[in-house]
Amino acid sequence: MEERPENLEGQPQRPYPIADLRELEEQTQVGEIFLAALLRRQLSLSLRVALTLLAMLGLQPLLAWLIPAYASTTVLSIPLPWLVLGLGSYPALIALGAYYVRNAERVDDEFSDLMHR
Amino acid sequence: MTSPAAIAGLLAMLIATVTVGIFARRFARTTSDFLVAARAVRPAANAAAISGEYLSAASFLGIAGLVMKYGFDVLWYPVDYAAGYLVLLIFIAGPLRRFGAYTIPDFAEGRFASPRLRRLAVGLVIVIGLFYTLPQMKAAGITVASAVGIPYGAGVLLMAGVVITIVMAGGMRGVTIVQAMQFTVKLFAITAPSFVLLIHFGSPTGIFARLHANPIPRLSQPLVAKVSPGDEWQVVQPLHVRLDHPSRVRLASLGPDSASAEAGTPAQPTGGGREVTLAPSATLPPGQVQWQQPTRVEIPAGSAVPYGVGTPPSSNAAWLHPFGPLAGASGQPLLFTYSLIVAILCGTLGLPHILVRFYTNPDARQARRTALFVLLLVGFFYLWPPLYGALGRLYMPGLYTTGLTDAVVLLLPRQIGPSWIGDTLAGITSAGAFAAFAATLSGLLISLAGALGHDIYGRWLRPEAGGAERNLAFRIGALTAGVAAAFLGLMVERFDINVLVGWAFAIAASSFFPMLVLGIWWRGLTTAGAALGTASGGVAATLAIATTMVATASPTLAGFLDRHPALAVILAQPTIVTLPLAIAVMVGVSLAWPRPPAGVASTMLQMHLPERLGLRREYIREP
User: Fold this and answer.
1) Which residues constitute the domain of residue B127?
2) CA gap B611, B364 in Å, rounded
């Protein structure tokens, strides 16, 4: 998991003072359209993950509040809410994080490819 | 109370920390070495160091102690500590690394082109940093006190001295190595004894079955307690005790309004308080017992445990259920739970010592991967502390009497026989506790020293200062912050570690969280909006918490809050109100006066453009 991407060996790779990029930075009109598109995609990804997280955590108190049976169910003597919150949360968090990292990298890469074309 | 194995554990960690710290000093040359380890820290070491810094005493000692005291509701703390890291990953890890600034104040100034906003951020870093050092100091005090048998205050001062020395000697390069090592120690120190505890006490199924089988916590072995005048017990069932001499006590029944009884109001008629002299063999009636003389009290095994001040008695059924003695007692269980969740989720990324670590990644991709790796490491760690809490309730309920629940991780292993095994395990958890507070404390001291030395001295007092002078200023900043934190730490012995931590999170969540997230994702956020929003959220949260602290000393205010539980919950756990307030102010002001700060377009580009495109500037350049 810790291998470095091949193009990032210590030194920043040769900087690209390419026309597209200068355009992006200087001609705010065009730059902003590109940037807005990138921002929108990244932000909607982040918000999607954030909402999933909120639902995952936020529904639990409501569940325990509205459905007493949820709170009093036990599995092998261990109350179900303990298992769900104290044990189940961590794999779910890591899965959400992995989903985010993979997709955020994909969005970045697609944008870079677009700019280089 | 002295434990040779625990002392050995502490000394081993101390020697390892100092040795590695001193060795690393050779590499600490320039300011940038000190602050971000020259950005060359490897991701694996970096993720371990971040986890090492993040897993503070609140995680290592505090969660177990609070679970022991309050049960299920406390699980929200570790889960949200981990989930807060996910929030950090999805909202700020990548863009903030690309921005390339060292600290939150750097971000505030760079994004909003405003030295004044920077000053506000520096002030908040100092407030949050100090709040967060308090629980670490408490942990230091109880760890050393339980190992060596010296007073709490001496333990605080001793450990503060050690950590200040390390930070002054090694800076962050030293600390990166030290903290990666300390993470390993912490993980080992929480898991290895857990396995032995499970072998000794049986599987979680058996542990929970025993909790279900007993209606209330009972002493599994005789308890000897030394009480001082003024100590109060709450007795839930008639309690037979043996005293070393006849002793005067004041007895009161537990009225429905136990708050006024706790405040010590001498109003006799309501509580029915009366002073009696107990014979050496006596039975205490259910109710409140206030000891008037120093006495050695023996309670036989099997008795229902008496509770000290600050530990609400609770049945095992309530302890096992959601909305138990923590959230349930607030009168507004749902509001309490949700506000706690929001505070920790959003507060994590506003903690000053956590962010600084992200600049040690080479690029945004590595920053994200590092954050994911951190999530994995801390998630695995957080599985274990609740086990200590549950076992503590079964096998060390005497801690409810003495109020030392925060020490359950340190003391529980000594229950395992033969005693050399128990002592060795206690030595291991003591070493882990040392790693926990030393790692977080040094991270905090670096942030505070950076704010004091780098900002206040290097920018405002003497902007012309050279490298050597700045390094000196950084060291003096570390010393100043450390001494201030140590003295504040002397005063918090009676507060729960995680309650103190919760306050730091609440302030961070209400100020830095909205500034960072809106600042990164919404180019429309103006300087005025950011400044007013950050200030109003931070000030409102601080005032709310200060009111809660005052209420612990003021019966009038406490009585008022008892009658208004929703208000009390919001003041004690203000994020659910103060975070929306800060966001509303930021958005409102920015829309009303849409004056974008200079260079915001290129700032946004820099934060969001992938590095492959080659637009890369460091906010702070090497001299």
Assistant:
1) 4-202+323-613
2) 8
ipTM at complex level: 0.83
- For the stretch B353-378, pLDDT in tens is 777 667 677 778 888 888 898 899 99
Question: Using the beta-carbon criterion (under 8 Å), do B75 and A85 form an inter-chain contact?
Answer: yes
Is residue B620 domain-resident? no
Residue of B nearest to A103 (CA): B90
Question: How many domains does chain B divide into?
Answer: 2
Same domain, B443 and B575: yes
* A46·B90 Cβ contact <8 A: yes
| Distance, CA of B201 to CA of B204 (rounded, Å) | 9
CA distances from B522 to B94, B390, B454, B579, B608 (A): 15, 45, 29, 17, 12
Instruction: Using DSSP, state whether B325 is helix, strand or coil.
Output: coil
Sheet harboring B307-308: ordered strands across? Answer: B274-278, B247-252, B287-291, B232-235, B307-308
**Hey, is A70 helix, strand or coil?**
helix
pLDDT of residue B465: 66
Residue type, B88: L
Whether residue A50 lies inside any domain: the answer is: yes
Residues B135 and B186 in one domain: yes
Q: For residue B420, what pLDDT band results from cuts at 50, 70 and 90?
A: confident
Whether the CB of B67 is below 8 Å from some CB of chain A: the reply is no
Give the dihedral of Cα atoms B391, B393, B399, B400; nearest 10 deg: 170
Please give the pLDDT value at position B107. Answer: 85
Q: Do the chains contact at A2 and B376, CB–CB below 8 Å?
A: no
Query: Between residues 345 and 384 of chain B, which touch chain A (CB distance below 8 Å)?
Result: 345, 362-366, 368-369, 371-373, 375-376, 379-380, 382-383
Structure tokens at B296: 């050695």
Last-in-domain residue among B304, B335, B350:
B304
Residues B455 and B573 grouped into a single domain: yes
Dump pLDDT digits (tens) for B277-313: 887 888 888 888 888 888 888 888 888 888 887 788 8
C-alpha span between B137 and B155 (Å, rounded): 9
**Residue contact A12–B373, C-beta within 8 A:** no
Does residue B621 lie in a domain region? no
Rounded Cα–Cα distance for residues B98 and B607 (Å):
5
**Number of domains making up chain A:** 1
Domain hosting A60: range is 18-116
Same domain for B297 and B160: no
In sequence order, the β-bridge partners of residue B295 are B227
Domain boundary residue, one of B304, B332, B351: B304
Same domain, B402 and B532: yes
Residue B230: inside a domain:
yes
The CATH code of the domain that includes B109 is: 1.20.1730.10
What whole-number distance in Å separates Cα of residue B178 and Cα of residue B172? 9
**Closest Cβ–Cβ partner in A93, A100, A108 for B82:** A93
Least confident of B51-55, B162-166, B251-255: B251-255
- Per-residue pLDDT of A45-79, as tens digits, reads 999 999 999 999 999 898 888 888 888 888 888 88
User: Residue B601: which of A7, A31, A93 has the nearest Cβ?
Assistant: A31
Q: What is the DSSP string of B376-403?
A: HHHHHHTTSHHHHHHHHHHH-THHHHHT
The model's pTM: 0.84
Closest CA to B145 of B55, B298, B306, B10: B10
Q: CB of B340 within 8 Å of any CB in chain A?
A: no
On whether residue A52 sits in a domain, the answer given is yes
The CATH code of the domain that includes B227 is 2.60.120
More confident residue, B40 or B150: B150
A26: closest chain B residue by CA = B602
Residue B340 identity:
L
